[in-house]
Design brief:
Elements (H helix, E strand, L loop, with lengths): L14 H20 L3 E2 L5 E3 H8 L4 H6 L2 E3 L5 E4 L4 H10 L8 E10 L11 E10 L4 H17 L7 E6 L3 H16 L7 H9 L10 H7 L11 H16 L5 E2 L11 E8 L8 E7 L3 H4 L7 E7 H7 L10 E6 L2 H13 L4 E3 L5 H10 L4 E6 H5 L2 E6 L5 E5 L3 H8 L1
Parallel strand pairs: 1-5, 7-8, 12-13, 12-14
Antiparallel strand pairs: 2-4, 3-4, 5-6, 6-11, 7-9, 9-10, 10-11, 14-15, 15-16
Helix pairs in contact: 1-5, 1-11, 5-9
């Protein structure tokens, strides 16, 4: 058993790291709730086509990173690599078109088979939001403002930079696709094999290539902004003006594209230089055709997702948990357990000193960072009393059992 290790790219979340994760998740959920978002939870695996049809057959996620398997019925299932497609599927499956506009928050594990590195695992955790049913660019502004609020609440505003771009509407992308294909065709032989395969099927994906040779070619490629329709240009102008009005700093990055095929109009990323080369901590964009592509009615949407592992590496030490009270039985163990349960019902965190002499039990209380020790000795129990010891100051006093809860609540 001693040789057993977690699968490569996964790790155990022990209490201290779990506390940091929980802090990030709760900060995101609290902010999302303030913006009117309700929580949704979708299964961690879906029919494979939920992802293969929506993320794009040529995307790295579909071609290289999905954990796909056949169940006992022969159905092809996939562990979710991201949250948006599952939320969109849930929207269709549950007939939520009558509930628009819909604001949804999610959190939980995602799975991608990629090279593990700092802050990037094969089982990782995300928090995210989706705003469905609003065509207006004001929805983009609100969703980005929520992202900024989450990062600000976590104390990360000074550590991140918002980069934003437009991917245009369908008319703009078709014009840009033709322009980009014409440019890249001159470099076909110099492109990587993946990019050559994408050139005819989805040339925009080449803009997101990680291959160094591809990146040098892409540096001089035409920009999407040169192909924008008047409507797409006005849409993006409204988004950037809205961010300026709200005082949210950003920079326009005309080379920014998102790695999944369903995005249109606004694309954005919050990046940092504090985590090495992989600097994106929160990213998202608009996807007006996704739900129609999945078989539902056309429903505009915009959302983002953030990596909990990456954010937890950036945040300062989260606020400490409330210090517990240690109940130390030195006589009738069940009487002490009864005292512990009474305190817990009163909302007090209690650590139980199970065994050992007084010295060992007090050492456990100090290790648990207990604020007070409640000593339940035989004589005190007979008098229906306990002794409360201040573990910071060293003083102690005897307190009647009937007054214990209110006395400790006042002290704490």
């Amino acid at each position: 058993m001693s040789s057993l290790q977690p699968v490569r790219g996964t790790h155990d979340l022990l209490p201290d790291e779990s506390r940091r994760h929980r802090w990030v998740e709760e900060a995101a959920f609290t902010a999302a709730r303030r913006y009117g978002f309700g929580e949704v939870s979708t299964p961690i695996f879906e029919f494979t086509e939920v992802f293969s049809r929506t993320l794009g057959e040529t995307s790295d996620v579909v071609t290289k990173e999905m954990y796909t398997f056949s169940d006992r019925s022969g159905e092809s299932l996939t562990l979710r690599p991201e949250g948006t497609a599952g939320v969109a599927r849930a929207f269709i499956s549950n007939g939520l078109a009558q509930s628009l506009p819909l604001k949804l928050f999610y959190r939980g594990p995602m799975f991608r088979h990629e090279r593990p590195q700092k802050g990037r695992l094969r089982q990782f955790h995300q928090v995210g939001v989706e705003l469905l049913g609003v065509e207006s660019p004001l929805a983009d502004v609100e969703v980005i403002a929520l992202a900024w609020r989450v990062l600000s609440e976590l104390g990360l505003a000074s550590k991140v930079r918002l980069e934003i771009n437009t991917l245009g509407d369908a008319e703009s992308r078709e014009a840009y696709r033709n322009t980009l294909t014409a440019y890249l065709s001159d470099f076909r032989s110099a492109l990587s094999e993946d990019s050559r395969n994408r050139l005819d099927r989805n040339p925009l994906r080449i803009l997101d290539s990680k291959d160094e040779g591809d990146r040098r070619i892409v540096e001089n490629a035409p920009l999407m902004t040169e192909s924008l329709s008047p409507a797409a240009r006005e849409f993006f102008q409204t988004v950037t003006s809205g961010l300026q009005t709200l005082g949210i700093p950003f920079m326009v990055n005309p080379r920014l594209v998102r790695g999944l095929d369903y995005y249109c109009h606004t694309a954005f990323e919050f990046t940092t230089t504090s985590l090495g080369a992989q600097g994106t901590v929160l990213a998202g964009g608009r996807y007006d055709e996704l739900i129609a592509q999945m078989g539902g009615a056309r429903t505009p949407g915009i959302g983002w997702a953030a990596g909990v592992e990456r954010l937890s590496m950036l945040v300062e030490e989260p606020p400490p948990l409330p210090r517990p009270v240690s109940v130390i039985p030195m006589g009738d163990d069940m009487a002490a357990m009864h005292v512990a349960e009474r305190l817990r019902r009163a909302g007090i965190s209690v650590d139980m000193g199970y065994s050992g002499n007084m010295k060992k039990r007090m050492a456990r209380a100090n290790k648990a960072n207990a604020r007070f020790a409640v000593i339940c000795g035989q004589e005190e129990t007979a008098r229906r009393a306990v002794t409360i010891r201040d573990l910071d100051g060293g003083s102690q006093e005897e307190v009647p059992l009937d007054l214990l809860e209110q006395h400790l609540v006042r002290l704490l």
